[in-house]
Structure formats: structure tokens, C-alpha cells
Amino acid sequence: MKKRIGFLPFLFLLTVTAAAQPSLSIEGGDSFSLDTLMAGTIAEHTIVVRNSGDAPLEIEKVEAACGCTGTMINSQSIPPGGTDKLLITFNSKNFSGGVHKSVSIVSNDPKKKTHRVDFEAFVIQELQISQSRFLFKDAVVGERKSASVTLTNNSKKNLELKGYETNLAGLTLKHPKVVSPGESVELVAEYIPKEPKRSLSSNVSIKTSSESKPEILLYVFGSVKEWKFE
Predict the structure, then answer these.
(1) What is the pLDDT, as a whole number, of residue 221?
(2) What is the spatial distance between Cα 118 and Cα 26, in angstroms, rounded to a whole number?
(3) CATH of domain 127-225
(4) What is the structure's pLDDT at 20?
(5) What digits encode the pLDDT tens for the residues 72-105?
(6) φ and ψ at 7, to 5 degrees?
(7) What pTM value is reported for the model?
């Protein structure tokens, strides 16, 4: 009977070698919240990346799903049992309401090549508009027609409305000069058409003292018909 010399030690060595591998995990879970942010705020959050395996964890790259999100990690290699910090930044400037974003960590973890971290926030505009348009449906040449939107100051300071600009002849805008913290005011557009238009499309630009929203752009839609005596 032949003896299989060295087979068991070889099998043991193969088993040990195969078991040595990195494993990426995030302390505290794979999601977090930035809570409520005022638009324009650049929020920062640091997560801890852990190598729960028994071989070095190599971070190949960290990808953000949006240009509004930035990332920075201290090291590209984490030893077995070690940790590293990943800084995630979010620029809320162009957002309003609920926001959901993600960051992907690509590594040499054989069980999960790409590890996704999700985060959420709720963004409040300093100056919030109830709707972004004035609608003048079936306006009549020579007759005054009005439309309004509500403007709310969500900040903790007085904000000024410095005037408006529009290329639409016959359109005027009534607005207060100052909006107090927490106050809601009406912006009233009055339109006296000079000529009929099958499709009305223009806008009104309002200048403000808000650093995060220095301009409010409102669109004007509708139609204008000729006056007829009946």
C-alpha cells in the first residue's frame, strides 16, 4: 500500500492560504443621515472603514454618484484588523427637500468588490417659493389679469427683495422690500397684454439679499386672445 507523503500538510497550507483575505465593513452601518440643512451648507461626515479580514485591504478608489459629493480617505491600504477614516462632504447649494445620495468604495474584498454607503438629508431653501411660475391662461388684450405665488423666508434674518426684471411688455410685479424670518408673503404679477399670443412664454427675475439664493427666477406661461364684443 502506497503512502501519500506530504498530502495532509499541503492541504492544510492550501486551506490557510485560501482563508487569508480582506473584508471591508463600515462601523455603525452602511447608511447615515445629515439631518436638516439650509441650502448652501457644505456638510461633512466621517465614517470608519474597517478591515475585518486577515489580509491587507487595498482601497482601489472611492466614487461619488454626484458632483455635489466629495470624498477623502487617509490611506489606500488597511492592515488586518485595522481601520481608516473616510471623509464625505455634501454641497447642498442646488437642492431642496429630501435628498438621497451614495458613495461607492471599490476594494480587493473578494466577497464584495464594491461597497456602497448611502446617506440622506433634508434641504431647506432660505427663500422658498410655493410654485415656480405665473400662469395667465386665456388672458385678453387690454384687460388686467393677475397671478400670485407665496414666498417664505426660512432663515433667521431679514431678507431683502431688491427689485425685478422682465422682458414681457405689460407685466408688473408687486412685492415687499423686506421679508422677516419665518414670514410668508405674496408676490403678485399683474399683466395687461398688448397683443394676442397663442403661446405665452417668458420669465421674471427677482434680486435678493440671500447669499444662497441671490436670484429667484419665475416663469410666465399662458395665452392671450383678442377682445371681442359679444
Answers:
(1) 96
(2) 11
(3) 2.60.40.10
(4) 87
(5) 999 899 999 999 999 999 999 889 899 999 999 9
(6) -70, -45
(7) 0.73
Inter-residue long-range contacts of 42-45, CB under 8 Å, 24+ positions, other chains counted: 42/89, 42/90, 42/91, 42/92, 43/89, 43/90, 43/92, 43/121, 44/87, 44/88, 44/89, 45/87, 45/88, 45/89, 45/90, 45/119
Choose the CATH number for 22-124 among 3.30.930.10, 3.40.50.360, 2.60.40.10, 2.30.110.10: 2.60.40.10
Fold equal for 22-124 and 127-225 = yes
- Given a contact cutoff of 8 angstroms between Cβ atoms, the answer to whether 9 and 42 are in contact is no
The amino acid present at 76, given as its one-letter code, is Q
Give dist(CA 220, CA 206) in Å, integer: 13
pLDDT value of position 211: 87
How many degrees, rounded to 5, is the angle at CA 90 between CA 76 and CA 86?
20
Per-residue model confidence (pLDDT) at position 212: 85
Ordered by start, the domain boundaries in the chain are 22-124, 127-225
Q: List the grid coordinates of 191.
A: 399683466
Percent of the chain residues topping a pLDDT of 70: 91
Sheet holding 97-107, edge to edge: 31-38, 114-124, 97-107, 57-64, 77-78
Pick from 69, 68, 190, 187: nearest CA to 128:
187
Backbone phi, then psi, for 26, in 5-degree steps?
-110, 125
